Amino acid sequence: MAFTEYSDVWGIKTLPILIFGMLISALSFWIQGFELSWLLKREEVAIKRTDRLTLPFSMNVWGYLIPFQGSFLYFLSFIKSKYNVSFFSLTGAYFWLFFLGLSVDGMMGLMLLVQFQASPFLVILLLGMASSVFALHALARINAFIEIQDAPSWKKKWVQRLHLGLDGFSQFKPADYLRFTGISILLTGLTTLWGWHISQVFNLGIDLTGVFYATVLMRIGLLLKITPGNLGVLQLGSGAVFSALGYSASAGIFISVWQQASMLLVSIPIGLLGTWLNRDYFSWKSLFSSTRP
Fold first, then answer.
1. Are the beta carbons of 226 and 233 closer than 8 angstroms?
2. Which of 14, 31, 159, 255 is deepest in the core (most CB within 10 A)?
3. Residue 289: left if φ>0, alpha if ψ -120 to 50, beta else—which one?
4. For helices 153-170 and 87-111, angle between their N-to-C axes, nearest 10 degrees
5. pLDDT at position 187, please?
6. Do residues 211 and 112 touch, judged by C-beta distance below 8 A?
7. Rounded to whole angstroms, how far apart are CA atoms 176 and 188?
8. Is a pLDDT exceeding 60 seen at residue 292?
9. pTM of the shown model
């Protein structure tokens, strides 16, 4: 379906769907704030309520200001500077959370394959996603690389810090997996329902299962951010995913544009406000300071 075919419904449906999208975006950011605060509690860090509310919005904004993983870099710099937490410990916990979400989406995708005509490539991709956090967890259990007593001091220091980051993976308990798995399912469900709602409103002809698989597969794109907020890349990727699943590529691009626009309208004002309120704690130098290695 070409973009011109959507024009007849824009006048009466644009504002309601945009407001709905902004509400879904705000709810997702709010849930992510709780997710990050619970993750940081494991590092014995209790972030302030205002930080819990504004940090996900600020991270999203910085994902657009800095092309390559700007949200992640802002998170590291801000938390390390304000709460004096180890850079490497934070990295391990953050990536555990990301790969857990990747695994959860992959497992949900495998369970729903019976409702979808799957290609061998899709099955392999979902299997890789589902096993990702467990592969990293196993890697963290390997202790051979810490035997570096005779290594140069600079090498020993960096290997010890690498171990500190990886060791965070092995510290998560079954209760942590259950809690954060539930949050990941909720966030994926919200995004899926949002995309399906857009499809229904604009008569794009994409069913709930198709939107779910597109949502799951697009998570992989979060690993590679080569433009601010993956703007443009995300839309092309979404179009390619929908096309591979047998739907219209333009419909996938259309859904992605609506979702990203709604997120921006919500995150820009709140994210900039959060950044301004915490401007004294944002410093790239804090990433390399010697506070609590």
1. yes
2. 255
3. beta
4. 40
5. 92
6. no
7. 18
8. no
9. 0.80
Res 182: pLDDT: 93
Report how far residue 238's alpha carbon sits from residue 252's, in angstroms, rounded to the nearest whole number: 5
DSSP letter for each residue of 85-126: --HHHHHHHHHHHHHHHHHHHHHHHHHTGGGS---HHHHHHH
Please give the Cα distance from 177 to 169 (Å, whole number). Answer: 11
DSSP 8-class letter at 285: G
pLDDT digits (tens, 9 = 90+) for 116-147: 666 777 788 888 888 888 887 777 666 545 55
Give the span between the Cα atoms of 183 and 189, in whole angstroms. 10
DSSP secondary-structure letter at 202?
A: T
Cβ count near 152 (within 10 Å)? 9
Look at residue 25 in the predicted model and tell me its pLDDT. Answer: 92
Alpha carbons 188 and 123: distance in angstroms, whole number: 19
- Alpha-carbon distance of 150 to 156, in angstroms, equals 9
Residue 265: burial class (beta carbons within 10 Å; 0-12, 13-18, 19+)? middle
H or E element: which one contains 199? helix 174-201
The distance of Cα 197 from the centroid of its chain, to the nearest Å, equals: 21
206 confidence band (pLDDT: 50, 70, 90): confident
Are 38 and 56 a contacting pair, CB within 8 Å? no
Q: How many C-alpha atoms does 104 have within 13 Å on its Cβ side?
A: 20
- What does the block give as tokens for 156? 């020993």
User: Which tokens in the block code for residue 252?
Assistant: 């996938």
